[in-house]
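Page header: ASSEMBLY MODEL / two components / 543 residues total.
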Amino acid sequence: MTDTAPEAVAPGAPDPDEAQRAIEYCYQQDWSDGLPLVPVSTPLVDQFLATTSRAPDEIIGSLEQVGRDCTVYLAAVNAAMAGCKPEYFPVVLAAFDALMRERAARGGGFQSTSGPAPLIVVNGPVRHELGFNTAGGAFGPGFRPNMTIPRAIGLIVRNAFGIREHVLGQATQGVPGRWSICIAENEEESPWEPLAANAGQPGGVSAVSATLTRTCEFIDNRATPVAEEVLRDFADTIGRLGPQIFPQTPVALVLCPEHAQQFASAGYSKADVQNWLIEHSGRTAGELRRAGKGGALRFPAGVSADAAPVSDEHFHRVLTEPRQIPVIVAGAKTAGISMVVRIFGEWSGIATPVGEKIK
Amino acid sequence: MPNAILDPTGTASTKAARPAAARAPRRASLRGARVGLLINTKQNAAPFLHEVGRLLVEEYGAGSVTARTKLNFAVPESEEVIKEMAAEADVIVTGVGDCGSCSAAAAADGVVFEAAGLPTAVIVTESFRATTEAMAELRGAPGFPYATTAHPVAVLEEAQVKERAAGVLGDVVALLTEPADENA
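Prediction written out in full:
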């Protein structure tokens, strides 16, 4: 539209041409995940650093196999580039800490052909203080903290750890939603304690949990009043063959409020749901063998599979303990639609409290 | 004066700020050499490396073969294991790198073995050249030589694994010995 008069420029308005040049400069340095970055200057990064008592040069994570460390300062630069506000930074630090507790994250997960994605879960008052989405559209997009915090983690892995695709990053296909999944639990509509309380941070404190995941699979079930029928639907997806490569196949459940409340009304605690699903999720040895996945039947170390062969009728459970199946309540109370999230490796089970600046 | 745009990239950590890695002197031949296999636990890695070891004894006169299994395929081996293997072997064959983290880890192990004085043949599948080379460079060994086999390895039958092992044998020998020995 060249025939319209140009908009009047308000005094003091930012210069878009300069902004575009700065964004393009960031692309040229190969810093970007593919989307535009916020060009970061010292005054901006200082605002991030002012939100924490931790020293800028403190090392907050190392990837020994590639010989890289991430400092508070580098995390701040990457968080600012990702589009975080300075006040999000303590959540970024907590999320990164929680993620680096994961054995898989430290042990080559970011280089894996699986191309796993972090699942970040935020609990406590910080959800509302920072304007997280705690309702519909839990997997995003549309909400700045939910989108920019996981992006910050992705940029830290790219820039601070130096894991770039096709070089040290070797994802065969990767995971949809990689570096963009940050769920603020819908504690207000959950019938149960928040995830942080299951992860060593009770009392409603602000805390972040994280694990690596391989994908999300939806369960749409909104027509039966029988809780066990809904659970059976979950068990079918949890136990399916595709993800099975090891004897155990951990999952996180991101339950919509409707499903969570249905289970609770039928008398189920979180632990009851976990135990029901541990009991019922799996496939028979015959089904695994016919799909070329008999290897997933391997017995624990020290027990030979040959010494105790299992018949084709043997039901192979993919989960054995509640920690392998963390339960989160998220989304809107609008339909019976939940997600089974495949965990890459095993969740640490430990949440990190969101640090407050020591005054 | 405008502010500078800040660089978000890290530099090598103190632990990894390694000087250029030394490469072990090559052997004139493999006659009598003790071969150490470092098996990375990936499917078919064990039969593949054992076949390489068997052929090194049978066709090149290697003295013995010992094997160890990595505790975690995804990360470089511990210094203790490297030291122990260095004490019981003269040359190392490791692999088979057929994933992102294990190929990189195989390269990292190879650089450490070489620095410990052991000629080493790292075997990865062709799909993982880029990450193998990137890791070797990170470890102070740009241009680190290694051997490749076609991808994939995990789905092969026993006979195919043996064919592949035989197919990479010449490259393994070339990696472990002086160039003059290649045509010996």
